[in-house]
């Protein structure tokens, strides 16, 4: 027998067992005789992570080893999140090599042990290929793999779990227990409560049942006290209720009523911000709620008919409701507080590969994994930008071969994985659900000149997703020929083959528009044809193959610009710098997109400079209006319309085994009718699940003053507390110092007076002849700064505003600590920072003394050939176009801690996002969750 892997055929050895052959692995990225680690340049870095709000150190590990092309943010997150061992002990991991080896070698050894590879050479090639891909950020496993694999902890590899609960007290209490175990392991779980009798039904003893909403209260309290994985991220969970449950209206209104409570308590003076000391009194906040609607209900909604709510044990109709009225109540609640979301039961189970083993009733917390009760799914995501060639074409063949390697590794992991409960272990080993996916779709579309909300963009996204699914199932069929199909396949063979045919038929319906999507779809078509033939002969090793997850923390690990299926958040980003500090940059995909659209270098430079100043492309010099849509983002002046998000989800859903983690953001001005329309269109377009979020609909968020999103018809009196600054005058006698300076040949003097406790309180600058305009302006400027300091404006604020300010005179100085200045003000405030700010704050601003820079360079580079003189100045003296553009950009306020906050500065409004519970940074959306760019924490799935 022969097997085709990576485009070549090779005879394979036979063996005893389910299959007739073993796997041959060909090299894709690596070179024979050269280890992947030897192909990159490694460097030592110090990871010091502080709480953005108070400056306290959250995490510190110095001398960690990473490739030189990994960003500071990726380094920080991997070091703090994934390195194992107690900090400060010899057992603590300190190199990316150790982390990758710990995981990859475990996978490879398991593959050998369980008979996946044809020869030892194939196992070694597999190990090297996986190592290369992880090292170069081509893909990443989900967080539990990095937490657990290769350690003494249980080898839990799954991030997504679905539980089951029945209508007995024993089962309900067991639900609490199992959720707690899953949360403790750093993962999330979902379940459907529809088997529990409603509050309108009787118990066998004659009393009235409590109903599922009452039991949700206990589970919510339990979840709120358990921190995932011993970290600060709270538990993530999903609670689902069927639309025909008699308590459906109570369930729908549950969280909306709690929002009313938050408003009342807030107005009474309680601290109801997210993380506030009084917010814990609010219930049902640790779960995402979803209503599971049937096709029967949706048809009744369309036709304006009645719909029956059914008793849980007998199935008889005990109440009839108006379908339109119930759907409107669902939309109203979602409009008020973003919950509940909606899941479309008919579509979900129509694409179910194993219906003979049970229906799909629930999902994981972010709604991307949907399969049998008491099951789990391990995830991995590919970085789509790694497959975009310099010529602008997507490398479909390389992508396909990469999917083969990743899906093979994911399948092997089930062979050695541990699970939180025995029922989950049994179901997962029997059906072997996998969840391959991708990140950076939004960046890929922009870089190829596609608008996110466009036919061409959706065609490319659909083609890539179809190719991923086709190759994943093709490899699953090949593995079934080696180690046998999944245990539940024989019973579900007909249904599984039917779903595979549905996927392939959807691929044939993709309408292509450009050479890129046409080429990808052609490769996908071939993979579907080959995969169906192999599957008909062997069956499939996995009941499910793919999901589209939020890719929050692992997206940062791969240095992705966008997460999951999401578009770019905004055109400007907040970037951390080596050695401390940060800067505002224009997304790197912007110039690449402009190049693809045909703009010349000079035009690109001008447009990028404009974006850096304004945060958007409207009226950018030389940019044609028909290209504006390419740069539309999730937030900003040209944000993507809600239906644009829904249409993108609909384009890729037919090629996903599970579903898509994504929240459709809606403006604050959206109406209940708009929400109702979105939920209806989700069903019509064939989605499996949908959630919306209307700006400022949550009260328990860190909102800006003056934001007062109120339900229609609501009037209330807000208590406004006015705070006034108090001037702290300097005493008659105070310490001071005078510094003489020369900048670009211009001479001057800086006099600085301080409080007795060494805080700077006044400055006087003499520059120019007495009585000249320049001298008068400098006197007025000095007086303004001095008064501001005495009113409490921090010195670091002024430093952040005036450093790098560019005007003449500029150039060389006579100060050994600041050798080059872009202006007199640039020099003055760098000098003041060096004299009056502590090292930690100066490090954030990128300002160091000559001795500090010399010591840092000596530590990092030893005695190598390094331009110490150039490194002594914190001004970049290069003359590249990119440097010139960045120098012209307005400096971000020192109080900005993330891309979300940077976007707020450009918009002049506050983004509706929670603060990170670990480091205080404002998070950004990632699928159905929120992600912290500062430390990698998420509010839901990893």
Q: Can you describe this structure?
A:
With about 950 residues, this protein is α/β, with parallel strands linked by helices. It has four domains: about 1-150 and about 365-555, no CATH class; about 165-355, Anaerobic Ribonucleotide-triphosphate Reductase Large Chain; about 570-630 and about 890-910, no CATH class; about 735-875, no CATH class. About 40% of the residues lie in helices and about 15% in strands. A hairpin with a 2-residue loop joins β19 (about 735-745) and β20 (about 745-755). The longest helix is centred in the middle third of the chain and has 29 residues, at about 455-485. The model is unreliable at about 1-20, about 225-235, about 700-720 and about 865-895 (pLDDT under 50).
Main sheet: strands, sense, barrel:
10 strands, mixed
Question: Whole-Å distance between the termini?
Answer: 41 Å
**Structural class by helix and strand composition:** alpha/beta
Low-confidence stretches: 1-20, 227-233, 701-721, 866-894
């Amino acid at each position: 027998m022969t097997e085709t892997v990576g485009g070549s055929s090779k005879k394979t050895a036979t063996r005893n067992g389910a299959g007739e052959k073993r796997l041959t692995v060909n090299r894709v990225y690596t070179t024979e005789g050269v280890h992947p680690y030897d192909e990159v340049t490694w460097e030592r870095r110090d990871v010091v992570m502080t709480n953005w709000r108070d400056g306290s150190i959250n995490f510190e590990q110095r001398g960690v080893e990473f490739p030189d092309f990994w960003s500071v943010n990726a380094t920080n997150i991997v070091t703090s999140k994934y390195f194992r061992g107690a900090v400060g002990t010899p057992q603590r991991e300190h190199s990316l090599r150790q982390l990758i080896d710990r995981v990859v070698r475990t996978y490879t050894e398991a593959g050998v042990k369980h008979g996946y590879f044809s020869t030892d050479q194939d196992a070694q090639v597999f190990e090297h290929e996986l190592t290369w891909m992880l090292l170069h950020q081509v893909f990443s496993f989900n967080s539990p793999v990095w937490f657990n694999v290769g350690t003494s902890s249980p080898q839990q590899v799954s991030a997504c779990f679905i539980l089951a609960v029945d209508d007995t007290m024993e089962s309900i209490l067991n639900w609490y227990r199992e959720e707690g175990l899953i949360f403790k392991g750093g993962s999330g779980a979902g379940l459907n409560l529809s088997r529990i009798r409603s509050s309108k039904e009787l118990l066998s003893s004659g009393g009235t049942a409590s109903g599922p909403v009452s039991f949700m209260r206990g589970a919510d309290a339990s979840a709120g006290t358990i921190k995932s994985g011993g970290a600060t991220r709270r538990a993530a969970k999903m609670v689902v209720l069927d639309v025909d449950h008699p308590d459906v209206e109570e369930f729908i209104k549950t969280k909306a009523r709690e929002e009313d409570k938050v408003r009342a308590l807030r107005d009474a003076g309680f601290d109801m911000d997210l993380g506030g000391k009084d917010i814990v009194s609010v219930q049902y906040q640790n779960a995402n709620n979803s209503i599971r609607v049937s096709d029967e209900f949706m048809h009744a909604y369309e036709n304006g008919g009645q719909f029956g709510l059914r008793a849980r044990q007998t199935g008889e109709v005990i109440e009839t409701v108006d379908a339109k009225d119930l759907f409107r109540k669902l939309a109203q609640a979602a409009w008020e507080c973003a919950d509940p979301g909606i899941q479309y039961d008919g579509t979900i189970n129509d694409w179910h590969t194993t219906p003979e083993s049970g229906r799909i009733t629930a999902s994981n917390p972010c709604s991307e994994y949907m399969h049998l009760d008491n099951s789990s799914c391990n995830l991995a995501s590919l970085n789509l930008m790694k497959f975009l060639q310099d010529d602008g074409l997507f490398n479909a063949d390389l992508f396909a071969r990469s999917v083969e390697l990743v899906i093979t590794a994911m399948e092997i992991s089930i062979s050695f994985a541990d699970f939180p409960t025995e029922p989950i272990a049994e179901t997962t080993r029997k059906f072997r659900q996998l969840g391959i996916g991708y990140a950076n779709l939004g960046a890929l579309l922009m870089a190829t000149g596609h608008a996110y909300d466009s036919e061409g963009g959706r065609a490319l996204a659909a083609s890539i997703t179809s190719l991923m699914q086709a190759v994943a199932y093709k490899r699953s069929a090949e593995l079934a020929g080696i180690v046998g199909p999944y245990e539940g396949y024989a019973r579900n063979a007909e249904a599984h083959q039917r779903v595979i045919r549905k996927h392939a038929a959807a691929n044939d319906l993709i309408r292509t528009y450009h050479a890129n999507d046409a080429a990808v779809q052609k490769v996908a078509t071939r993979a579907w044809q080959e995969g169906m033939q192999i599957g008909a002969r062997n069956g499939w090793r996995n009941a499910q193959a793919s999901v589209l997850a939020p890719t929050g923390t692992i997206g940062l690990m791969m240095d992705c610009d966008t997460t999951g299926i999401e578009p770019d958040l905004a055109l400007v980003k907040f970037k951390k710098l080596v050695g401390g500090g940060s800067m505002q940059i224009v997304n790197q995909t912007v110039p690449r997109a402009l190049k693809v659209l045909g703009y010349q270098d000079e035009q690109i430079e001008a447009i990028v400079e404009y974006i850096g100043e304004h945060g958007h492309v409207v009226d950018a010099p030389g940019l044609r209006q028909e290209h504006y849509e390419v740069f539309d983002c999730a937030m900003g002046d040209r944000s993507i319309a809600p239906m644009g998000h829904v249409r993108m989800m609909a384009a890729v859903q037919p090629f996903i085994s599970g579903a898509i983690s994504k929240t459709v953001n809606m403006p604050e001005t959206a109406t209940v009718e708009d929400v109702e329309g979105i939920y209806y269109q989700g069903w019509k377009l064939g989605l499996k699940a949908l959630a919306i979020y209307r700006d400022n609909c949550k009260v328990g968020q860190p909102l800006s003053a003056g934001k007062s999103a109120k339900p229609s018809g609501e009037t209330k009196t807000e208590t406004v507390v006015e705070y006034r600054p108090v001037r702290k005058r300097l005493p008659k006698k105070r310490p001071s110092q005078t510094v003489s300076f020369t900048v670009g040949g211009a001479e001057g003097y800086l006099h600085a007076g301080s409080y007795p406790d060494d805080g700077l309180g006044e400055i006087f600058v003499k520059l120019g002849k007495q009585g000249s305009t320049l001298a008068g302006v400098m006197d007025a400027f000095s007086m303004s700064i001095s008064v501001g300091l005495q009113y409490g404006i921090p010195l670091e604020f002024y430093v952040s505003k005036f450093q790098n300010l560019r005007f003449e005179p500029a150039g060389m100085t006579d100060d050994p600590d600041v050798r080059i200045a872009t202006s007199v003000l640039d020099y003055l405030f760098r000098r003041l920072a060096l004299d009056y700010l502590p090292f930690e704050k100066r490090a954030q601003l990128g300002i160091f003394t000559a001795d500090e820079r010399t010591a840092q360079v000596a530590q990092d580079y030893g005695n190598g050939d390094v331009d110490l003189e150039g490194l002594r100045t914190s001004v970049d003296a290069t003359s590249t176009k990119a440097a010139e553009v960045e120098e012209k950009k307005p400096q971000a306020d020192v109080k900005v801690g993330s891309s979300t906050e940077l976007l707020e500065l450009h918009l002049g409004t506050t983004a509706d996002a929670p603060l990170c519970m670990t480091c205080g940074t404002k998070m950004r959306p990632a699928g159905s969750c929120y992600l912290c760019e500062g430390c990698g924490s998420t509010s839901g799935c990893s």
